[in-house]
Amino acid sequence: MLALSGAAQAATSRDRLTLLIPDGASLSSWQVQVWTDSAAEEGIQIRTMTDSAFLALGANAVNTIAGLILPDSAHIQASDALVAAVKQYVNAGGQLMLTYDAGALTDSGVYSLTGKSRFSDLVGVDYVQYDLLRDRVVGFGPIVGSKGRMENLSLPPGKYMPYVADTGSAAAAVATAGPANAVFVPTNRFDPGGSQFMRSLIEARARGGSPSLARLSAAATSATQLRYDLRVGNATQALAQLQSQLRTGSTAASLRQGDDVSAVVNADGSNWSENAPAVTASRLASSDAAMQSISGYGFGELSYYHFVTTGTFPGKVFLTSPQHGLVAGERDYGSGKVLFVNIPLGYFKAIGTDGVLIQGFLNHFARDQVVMPRLSVQPRGVGGLVYNWHVDDGDDIVPQFRSLMAMDFMQNQGPFTVHFTAGPDVVTLGDGAGMNLPNNPAAQAVVAKTAKVGWYARGYGMPHEIGSHGGWNHDLYGLNANETNADTYLPWLVLNFNAIEDVTNQRLRAYSAPVGNNPTWATQWLERRGVVGMYTVSNTGAAATREWRSGERLTNKLWAMPIAPLGKSATFEEFELDGVTDRTSAQWLVDLQSFVVNNRTNRLFYNHPPGALGHLGVVKTFVRRAATLQSAGRFKWYTMAELADFSQRRLQTTWSASGTAGWINFTGYNPVSLTDVTWLLPRSEYTMPAVISGSGSVSTTDSKNWVVTAKSGTSITFMAWKL
């Protein structure tokens, strides 16, 4: 970015966030890279800056840094001088996102002599109180916030569930626990935030190994040694404070926009009624005050760890811990503003494959607090869904999937992403329940017709994306493949790919793992083979991302498409087991469509043919409403490869913003193509932009942003007046 002075500097568009890292920190360490990766995936430009470089800026930091992030895990130690400089930056008008254990220790690696975090006065509550709280410094439990705030933080419908006081708490999982009891994480100065202690538990949860708080609690007296003790009596009453703020409307007039879409389904989910644009925002806002807990697929309500906070928070409460205080909130400090996030966002993505929160908070910070230009994650900025069909066995493909795709309402809809398990067996070798694709002409015809290849290439209908659903025999592979038996099960992957490609004569580029079981060796083999998009049960609720496990990013060009859950369920068979009605599942799917439209983002929903046939009215509503939104230009069905290819190309886009006397020039470049790459410029900060070189268009239909889309070529320049 250009470094200007005087009046020119005041007009400069600061187009990137700054991640503050210690001197000598490795940019490839997970503690740093997970932040730079996540920002890039969200279309947010970010740069790293060392402590020394930040200190050298002095009072000029506020003029050169649009938004500053102190990350968790990477910046646990900080000097007094750095803490003071960060406070000076915010006080002078800077925008700060302060995350969990940043600055928890001095540069000598000890707790502050003040007995609390040196950032406590900046945040507005006391935390990291080792001298006072000892074994109760870090708590463990559910995270609660309003429905409106959950969606503002990019958590889609279904990634949260109604909060019921105490019944979902960690303490309630202990039979002997009274209402005053709570769960705590052991800490010390070598592990001030408890992240090292919690690593085995968080990794187990990422693998599905600890599906309930009860199972964690049962282990507490042996392997895990989580502590159960009286809750801190003067912990911040953030939940009550949030509820009060919502009643008085002091948190925000509305988190909704005037062009948002929404709909209501009928009693059995077989039809819907679209809300008029004039009333959508108010109707959505009316339900936004409902208290919700963050949840996860297979788990229900999730628990996270966070510092116990004390004192009354002098700002807007975003998220709370019913037992331990403030989890996230925003407050004014001097002329600036600080967003405090009291959970290790980077850690949960890099170690726990739980990335929806880091993505969401980055989005909020860039979009709502810094109010900066950014790239849309979507081609042309059009939100949409991946509709992923898993066809597991012989009955699934013929007659069930064949019948579904022949129904009138499915004609010329999509494209969908359809994955097949092609082997002869399912549960046991020799059971003959598989589709046996190489020797099944009827199944081959269904695959060919779905892909629109061969005899069916000129027929009527939409060509769908074909992918591989795991390793040859569905349950056998899904329940038995692990990190140690690649020699046994990799050949099954090869068989499945080859069988499908023999029918389609097309290289498969999309994949889903049976039972969600995708060992590391399989993921890495998929990328080497040219697969670019895969379904995953990690990072549930997030948009397309690149998957991390145990501190390592697994792939470079293979994008994971996390499933969107409805509480602890994700597909029709599970809805039946969990008592989810058709009305509820249909409303969730309609809300999911509205979410991706309103937020210009993507998510994935998957189902199986038997489940879809058993809930046909819901599927009809889902598909027909999508067609209505698509005809209005608000929605699109995306295939995995389409979304992955665009996401990978978008990462190669470089752009900058600079100018003088109020006019800001935006220059973008992509070595391959800028086609469909889209910028979102906040209306509150810029006048309507004009394209001055290259090929592009400007849409004025978004109530919050100017939408600038490149049509073709490798470079574009557009300009706007900075308000």
Sequence-ordered SSE layout with sheet pairings:
Blueprint: H1 6-11, E1 17-21, H2 30-41, E2 46-50, H3 51-57, H4 61-64, E3 68-70, H5 80-91, E4 95-99, H6 120-123, H7 130-133, E5 138-142, E6 144-146, H8 147-152, E7 160-162, E8 181-185, H9 195-206, H10 213-218, E9 227-230, H11 238-248, E10 263-265, E11 272-274, H12 277-286, E12 291-296, E13 300-301, E14 303-307, E15 316-321, E16 325-333, E17 336-341, H13 345-350, H14 356-370, E18 374-375, E19 384-391, H15 394-406, E20 417-420, H16 441-451, E21 465-469, H17 474-480, H18 486-504, E22 510-512, H19 520-529, E23 533-536, E24 548-549, E25 552-553, E26 559-562, H20 572-577, H21 582-599, E27 602-607, H22 609-614, H23 616-631, E28 636-637, H24 640-651, E29 654-660, E30 663-669, E31 678-682, E32 690-699, E33 705-721
Parallel strand pairs: 1-2, 1-3, 3-4, 4-17, 19-20, 19-27, 19-28, 20-21, 21-22, 22-23, 23-26
Antiparallel strand pairs: 5-8, 5-14, 6-12, 6-15, 7-12, 8-9, 10-11, 12-13, 15-16, 16-17, 18-31, 24-25, 29-30, 30-33, 31-33, 32-33
